[in-house]
Amino acid sequence: MSGLVAFLVRLLCGARARWQRSEPNGRQRIYFANHTSHLDAVVLWATLPQSSRAKTRPVAARDYWAASRFRLWMAERVFRALLTERRKVTAQENPLRDMVEALDGCYSLILFPEGTRSSNPEPQNFKSGLFHLAKHRPEVEFVPVYLENLNRILPKGELLPVPLLGSVTVGSCIRLEEGETKDSFLERARLAVWNLHNA
After folding, report:
1. What is the rounded CA–CA span in Å between residue 56 and residue 99?
2. Which pTM does this prediction carry?
3. For tag attachment on the chain, is the N or C end more exposed, with fewer CB atoms within 10 Å?
């Protein structure tokens, strides 16, 4: 089922991953990308090779994906998404804990560090979660991805996608450097995504 869905997503969006100074491999990764559309996680997931896709879980907003039974079924059964709360959460609901548990289960993750969608081509400032994951799991590869045109395929507020060409550009991995501050790492990660624009 997941293979068919991935094929249909690629067909609809015309998206293929373009690997810049990197390539797919079997190592555990956190793919982090700019966020412009509810299609972002689905398209990035669909453009990964099948072997990587099978071990990669998108991190997605529960309020959107649980809004209907069909969406929730797709999120849980097809994408195996890690659904998180966007509202203010308690310590027991900390999404970082769930992400670390997924990494401990040998999954890779797809993450959108801006925390919300933006219509601007340049990513907004990243939230601190990416830094904390890098501190907790320094052995994991952090791979920047730039997604383009997906907000035109599924504009904000629309339910049905419009067939257009989207692009997915995957860059080389980064790691938290020894002694690097949170602000420095987050800005370096943000620029790693933005520098893939028109790469």
Report:
1. 12
2. 0.88
3. N
